[in-house]
Amino acid sequence: MHITESDQLLELEDNQFMGELPKLSNSQINFKGKNNFLICEEDVHLWNSRIDFNMDNSVLYLSSNIHDYSVNIALHKNCVCFIGKNNFFNGRTNFVLSEAKNIVLGDDCFISYNVVFRTSDGHCIYNTKSKNRMNYARSIYAGDHVWFGQNSFIFKGSKIGSGSIIGAGSVVSNRTINSNTTYGGAPLKLINEDTFWTPHSTNGWGEDEIEKMSHSDIDLFTYDVDDKTLDLDEIEQNLNGFTDLDDVISYIWLKFLVGGKNRFTIK
Question: Which domains are assigned to the chain?
Answer without folding.
Answer: 2-198+208-256 (2.160.10.10)
